[in-house]
Design brief:
The protein is of the alpha/beta class and 458 residues long. It folds into 4 domains: 123 residues, 3-Layer(aba) Sandwich (Rossmann fold), CATH 3.40.50.720; 96 residues, Regulator of K+ conductance, C-terminal domain (Alpha-Beta Plaits); 94 residues, 3-Layer(aba) Sandwich (Rossmann fold), CATH 3.40.50; 95 residues, Alpha-Beta Plaits (2-Layer Sandwich). Helix content is 30%, strand content 26%. The protein is built from 14 helices and 24 strands. The protein has a 6-stranded parallel sheet, sandwiched between helices. Strands 14-13-12-15-16-17 form a 6-stranded parallel sheet, with helices on both faces. The protein has a 5-stranded antiparallel sheet with strand order 7-8-11-9-10. Strand 16, helix 12 and strand 17 form a beta-alpha-beta unit. Helix 5 crosses helix 13. The longest helix is centred in the first third of the chain and has 14 residues. It is globular, with a radius of gyration of 23 Å.
């Protein structure tokens, strides 16, 4: 498949890395020649320096033969015009655009993206994706990473193991014997900076970061088994009242269970806008790093502090100060992946990676066939893929123990007739089942072959 990616920033780089590793013909366009040079030096892609919305630049990028264009530059307007040019001049079949401004995303204006108006097949909103990720973090405060699968019936949890974890030094095979009714599978382990799919005889050690796929009804029990508390949250302080913070606060107001939230926003105009848009949430205008303001917001009594300003360092420092003030749980929005190793020494409990959520959303929309969900883990190190089994798939009718999966692949959950089943060796995969699979990046092409699904346009 021939794909043009407009924008060589973090999101464009990650999408290019995914698609080029799966033997697609990828061309990246960016008006920053240095970024284009960096991406062509490190990935097996072609690069064009120039404005993505210019017809002559798209022509040089091979638009006449392209199957898909992904517009992910920093400008909403450039992304929109790029899709229009791709449609009107080059008839590119599938067009994906990343749009940030909330005005473009209001439901009443959705007709704007019709084929005879502004033809965009898929609109990705990073702010909405990040807000949803923040809400998932708040609902699973003991996890450093989480994502939903199987229509909300299964959940991926990233859990950091401490010294007091009850299952330390226990082979994974024994976990099944000890907790036979627990519908949870450890699908990935990060140890010493390296991510791998564990074998049944592997043990877990303090400091490991484990990825677990579990039935949502067993989430609390899973946390308890891995030594984590599951206290229900009643008070949340949000540092940052921009699009992300406002979306989270609105969602919290709409929940049926009572949850008190306060928002701290430095920009007065932004704070006033948030105060007007929210009904029950108190908005404080001031610096989220100010200890007096944090005390006024009640961080010492809060169950969690969510730092989601547009500055990574502010988010990390606000989390540190909240911890100093007595808040037990801090979650920081972090764009720069090089800052992630600082989370542990700074005692920040969890982070939200906007790049990762946006990349996962784009991948979910461009996979063809019966792939229903894709979640990217780490720095494109692995994926968790949700897919429906086709009758033509080599998996159909096979027991899991008889399937020749690559070493870096594990089945985390199976949905049979609407019920989540814990996958075991004698579990039979039938046509129509939906399975959740953890796969290291190098094994993605083989997994897609097993699904009889290719990365393609609809």
């Amino acid at each position: 498949m021939r794909v043009i990616i407009c924008g060589a920033g973090q999101v464009g780089w990650q999408i290019a890395k995914h698609l080029s590793s799966e033997r697609n013909d990828v061309t990246v366009v960016d008006n920053n020649a240095d970024l284009v040079r960096r991406i062509t030096d490190t990935l097996d892609v072609q690069g064009i320096a120039g404005h993505a919305s210019y017809p002559d630049i798209l022509e040089r990028a091979g638009a006449r033969d392209a199957d898909m264009i992904i517009a992910a530059t920093f400008s909403d307007e450039v992304n929109m015009v790029t899709c229009q040019v791709a449609h009107s001049i080059f008839a590119i079949p599938r067009k994906v655009a990343r749009l940030r401004a909330q005005s473009y995303l209001t439901a009443i204006y959705s007709d704007l993206y019709r084929r005879d108006h502004m033809p965009i097949d898929v609109v990705i909103s990073p702010e909405r994706e990040v807000a949803e990720a923040a809400l998932r973090r708040l609902s699973s405060p003991s996890a450093f990473e989480t994502e939903m699968f199987l229509e909300g019936k299964a959940q991926l949890l990233g859990i950091q193991l401490d010294e007091d974890c009850p299952v330390i030094n226990t082979p994974l095979r024994q976990l099944t014997d000890l907790f036979s009714t627990l519908r949870a599978i450890v699908v990935g382990v990060r140890r010493g900076g390296k991510l791998f799919a564990p074998e049944p005889n592997d043990q877990l050690f303090p400091g490991d970061q484990v990825y677990v796929v579990t039935d949502v009804e067993d989430v609390n029990r899973t946390f308890e088994i891995f030594g984590k508390t599951t206290k229900r949250q009643e008070r949340v302080v949000i540092v940052g009242g921009g699009n992300v913070g406002l979306a989270v606060a609105k969602a919290l107001e709409q929940r049926t269970e009572r949850l008190r939230a306060k928002v701290i926003e430095k920009n007065r105009t932004c704070a006033e806008h948030a105060a007007d848009a929210l009904e029950r949430t108190i908005v404080l205008n001031g610096d989220g790093l100010n200890m007096e303001l944090l005390a006024e917001a009640g961080v010492d009594r809060a169950d969690a502090v969510l730092a989601v300003t547009d500055d990574d360092k502010t988010n990390l420092l606000a989390s540190v100060r909240a911890k100093q003030a007595g808040c037990p749980m801090t979650i920081a929005l972090v764009n720069d992946p090089t800052l992630i190793p600082l989370l542990d020494p700074l005692d920040v409990d969890a982070y939200i990676n906007p790049r990762g959520t946006t990349v996962s959303s784009i991948l979910r929309h461009i996979r063809h066939g019966r792939v229903r969900g894709v979640y990217s883990i780490g720095d494109a190190e692995a994926e968790v893929i949700e897919a429906q089994i086709l009758s033509t798939s080599p998996l159909a009718g096979q027991k899991i123990r008889n399937i020749d999966f690559p070493e870096g692949v594990l089945v985390g959950a199976v949905l049979k007739e609407g019920k989540v089943v814990k996958p075991q060796g004698d579990t039979r995969i039938d046509e129509g089942d939906v399975i959740v699979v953890f796969t290291l990046a190098a094994d993605v092409p083989e997994v897609e072959r097993l699904f009889q699904v290719t990365i393609d346009f609809f």
